[in-house]
Amino acid sequence: AVSQSPTTAASLPPTPALSIGVPEPKMRVGVQNTENARITVNIPYTILNDQNVAVGTLATGVVGELMLDAATNGEVFKAGDLYLNAPYFRLEPTDWATGVFTVINFENRLKWDKSKNNNAYRGAVELRVSIYGNAWLVNEILLDDYIKGIDEVPNVWASEFHKAQAIAARS
Question: Rounded CA gap, 136 and 32, in Å?
Answer without folding.
Answer: 6
